[in-house]
Design a protein that fits this description.
Chain lengths: 406, 142
């Protein structure tokens, strides 16, 4: 029998986001898989260059609705590094607290989606019901369920009162009980184990070679966590363990995530016990001095990297985002090949894909010359000036802060 | 006439939806899923999430339409059987929102296909989504 090529996506019941996987099948076996990204490319990085740093926070939070705090913190850390602003300790603690609450909500979300992908909808309903507890808490602390908007340049926007701290402890206690139950399901439930074991294998060597990050890497026994390796916010002084697993398959990724939840509760309790007094934000200059910075953040999905370059104005000259799913996308193609068609949804879901984070590569195809090339920086700049001129916006001749912008 | 009324009654009691992310940041998508989860339980209005556009009555879209998803959105819309309704969830889906003017974005959902109901919010809260869907069902009654 010949090989069959089937497309999965952009609209597919197993995918929550528009992306496209081209699966080559030999019978039931997947022999090759290719990942096509770009359906979610909106042009955020370019839009960031047209807004001030403060406006960028709003936009950057909307790179991804699930790890919005991760992106905004990573961006702000870079801006603060360029401006040489040190945030108060209390602000760093609150940022860490919200970051961990976000990790809890994201891991619960993943657990539900993973259950849904293998037809275990009860797990989906259970974990999404428990997830509402975190969302209620976050809504109380920040005013929003999903895009929190608590970060600001030079600190955070809201303080945490003792009553709110007591509320957090209560919710964390309830969630801890539930997490123990899920840990029991993930490590003892035979149907789930037989569905997850040896599915989507990624050995330690392959994970290192393909640049896997986050729980995918940690499930392959790679002890890599930005919170430990390059501590930011308040992680330097918080004791916690980096969870690793040796299964190197979907089961390992599930165990890593559920055990990480337990670490989250530990971190949050430590933060509440040791929350320093003081200011929650400091003044941030309107114009950021010239310079560049590179910032890392351990998002729920892995390492999130932001690069910001400033040219001394109130808007960044360049913002570059490398989201964790981008790093894991290469391993998906590897994990899929050799498996079965029925395992494709869960293998894709096991990296906890977030394609709205990922789709930001700039690749310009010149349809007139038929070439498919990556533009360098001056060429891209010329292209954007030309594009705006053709669309009725001509900046040539306008000077801003003594520099020609067009 | 009676037959038509019966069909409409059945339709209002079981509006099956299909969810298509046209380039959203995921926030609206997880809120749509949260609406289907036990806390908000949209299923009590007969709403069921379906995998194929051919089985669905309501197309729930989130996010601004990116240039890449535009053709696919039209294709999904055309695959749906008549009568079909489109609900735009979130500010981006209503107007393009914060992404308006980005080079990869076409605009709101209504710049590509006709929209029956708009649910604003960034992201739209589950309560707002329920309200929007119920309002759409009410308008079907008439």
């Amino acid at each position: 029998m010949g090989k069959v090529v089937i497309p999965i996506g952009p609209q597919h019941p197993a995918l929550k986001e528009p992306e496209n996987f081209v699966i080559t099948l030999d019978g039931e076996k997947v022999v090759a898989a290719a990942v096509n990204l770009g359906y979610n490319h909106r042009g955020i990085e370019k839009a960031c260059e047209q807004r001030t740093y403060l406006q960028d926070i709003y936009l950057i939070e909307r790179i991804c609705g699930i790890c919005s705090h991760a992106h905004s913190t990573a961006f702000i850390q870079a801006a603060e590094e360029i401006a040489e602003v040190e945030i108060p300790r209390r602000a760093a603690f609150i940022r860490t607290l919200i970051g961990e609450l976000e990790r809890i909500h994201s891991h619960f979300l993943w657990l539900g989606v993973a259950g849904h992908e293998v037809g275990f909808d009860t797990l989906f309903m259970y974990s999404w019901r428990d997830r509402e507890l975190v969302l209620d808490l976050v809504a109380k602390l920040t005013g929003n369920r999903v895009n929190y908007g608590i970060n600001t340049l030079g600190g955070v926007r809201r303080d945490i009162s003792p009553e709110e701290a007591a509320e957090i402890r209560k919710v964390i206690g309830a969630l801890e009980e539930r997490t123990k139950y899920y840990l029991g399901i993930a490590s003892e439930e035979t149907t789930l184990i037989s569905r997850f074991l040896n599915v989507g294998r990624l050995s330690k060597e392959d994970a290192l070679r393909l640049g896997a990050t986050g729980p995918v890497a940690r499930a392959a026994d790679i002890k890599r966590d930005v919170r430990k390796d390059d501590p930011y916010a308040a992680y330097g002084e918080i004791p916690f363990d980096v969870i690793t697993d040796t299964h190197a398959d979907v089961l390992g990724r599930t165990l890593v995530r559920v055990k990480e939840l337990m670490e989250c509760y530990k971190i949050i309790r430590y933060i509440l016990d040791n929350m320093p007094e003081g200011l929650i934000s400091v003044r941030f200059p309107r114009r950021v001095p010239e310079g560049e910075a590179f910032s890392r953040y351990e998002a729920p999905r892995g390492e999130d990297v932001h690069y910001v370059k400033s040219n001394g104005m109130d808007k960044p000259e360049r913002v570059k985002v490398r989201a964790p799913t981008m790093a894991n996308a290469a391993s998906v193609a590897h994990m899929l090949s050799g498996g079965y068609l029925a395992d494709v949804p869960i293998v894709i879901a096991a990296i906890d894909p977030c394609f709205s984070c990922t789709d930001r590569t700039i690749r310009v195809r010149d349809i007139f010359r038929g070439s498919d090339s990556v533009l360098d920086w001056p060429a891209l700049r010329d292209y954007s000036i030309r594009w705006y001129r053709e669309n009725g916006l001509d900046f040539s001749g306008i000077k801003l802060f003594g520099r020609e912008i067009g | 006439m009676v037959f038509k009324k019966l069909i409409n009654w059945a339709r209002i009691k079981s509006p099956w939806i299909i969810h298509f992310n046209t380039g959203a940041c995921n926030a609206c998508d997880i809120e749509i899923l949260a609406t289907l989860a036990p806390r908000f339980d949209l299923e009590r209005f007969g709403v069921l999430l379906k995998g194929s556009p051919r089985h669905a009555d309501v197309l729930v879209c989130s996010g601004p339409v990116t240039l890449q998803t535009k053709d696919r959105l039209i294709r999904v819309y055309e695959q749906m059987a008549e009568p079909k309704f489109v609900v735009a969830v979130g500010t981006c889906a209503c107007s393009g929102g914060v992404f308006n003017g980005c080079y990869g974005v076409k605009g709101g959902i209504d710049s590509v296909i006709p929209v029956s109901a708009y649910i604003p919010g960034c992201p739209a809260r589950p309560e707002a989504i329920i309200d929007g869907i119920v309002k759409l069902l009410k308008s079907l009654k008439q």
